[in-house]
Amino acid sequence: MLDLLIKNANLPDGRTGVDIAVSDGTFQDIAPAIDAQSQKTIDASGRLVSPPFVDPHFHMDATLSLGQPRLNRSGTLLEGIALWGELKPLLTREAVVERALRYCDLAVSRGLLSIRSHVDVCDERLLAVDALIEVREKVAPYIDLQLVAFPQDGLFRSPDAEQNLLRALDKGVDIVGGIPHFERTMLEGAASVQRLCEIATERGLPVDMHCDETDDPLSRHIETLAAETVRLGLQGRVAGSHLTSMHSMDNYYVSKLIPLIAEAEIHAIPNPLINITLQGRHDTYPKRRGLTRVPEMLAAGINVALGQDCCMDPWYSMGSADMLEVAHMAVHVAQMTSIEAMKQAFDAVTVNSARAMGLDDYGIEKGKPATCVLLQARDPVEAIRLKANRLAVLRNGEIIAQAEPQVSTLNLAGRPDTVDPAGYAPVENPPGKTL
Predict the structure, then answer these.
(1) Which of 21, 56, 284, 413 lies 20 to 30 Å (CA to CA) from residue 350?
(2) Fold of 4-51+368-408
(3) Is 213 a known active-site residue?
(4) What confidence tens digit (pLDDT) does each residue in 194-209 have?
(5) Is the bond preceding 259 in cis, omega lying within 30 degrees of 0?
(6) pLDDT tens-digit series, residues 80-101
């Protein structure tokens, strides 16, 4: 007797009409027409069953704080930074915990079950660090939450930032962060990359740096990060987030830089919603998009994972914990509209992001934890197009969130009674058939 049997599902790799057997919290079998009794059966009806969504770059200490202590009237990065500076002294541990937990509720409903959050350590109290460590423990049964010690005001620019970062790591924060382009000089930025990578090496920890989040084509700290990664033997354990300066760099330099990133096995984490919003603000026209060179890095074999970055906070007044919204923006801004590229965008919010976060038990495979999402869409491209409804979210074989299909009722003479947006998926003509 199975615990759960999902019938007639499609998978992101292109398999269709498969059954998925679940027992003891794991995938027992994945095959067509599994003949077995189960305590519960879900008819996927040809819909997509995907591994859960993964957000490799977020700021949970600030989430849902929009309007406190005031709104970002200009919508710019600099006003957002100033706002966060005003808000930090007013934070309480209880408020940070409550907002983070509310956000995690929303994330679960969206099938987002793994999140890497940067947490500001440029506060002597380390209040946000303690709050998010508490949240990490509370959500552990349903969300994998990784924390990055982030010296948000600059490792050297902010007094005691290094000491605070080390204290945060001692408390159990998982990853070493940085922001070299925010240091006072390019030399100090490069020195901060070197120092932070050395700290990570000494402690056996990964690195995830906000790197070159600027329109300045001469901001080249990703080059230093790649060099330090190789020097210290950190290949595969380092992520460079944002990398927006690459959008403005000349092609000759990028032709050198991309192979260096690939050689260092650095995970690239662009954040399409925020990059398209905050970059290019000094431009009139032509106006730069700001998103880094996603297709080029994918073509070079670099693991590109897309992050959400912000949700209703001082920097971004929108957001909804929807990684399909992130992929949807990437498809448009990076002009990833080929069939293969759209599938790559889906991978960038699932398998690629899981790889960037080092999630070993991720994926729909026999013997792995039965953690997945049933979407109101037929395939990954349709899921992105529709930002598809999550009909069921499973964690270790347990259904932890459900929703009814989104279907509208029509009152039009001679037309159908209902409309299902997922019913508009294109069907490719069989060979030799004409319409």
Answers:
(1) 21
(2) Urease, subunit C; domain 1 (2.30.40)
(3) yes
(4) 999 999 999 999 999 9
(5) no
(6) 888 998 999 999 999 999 999 9
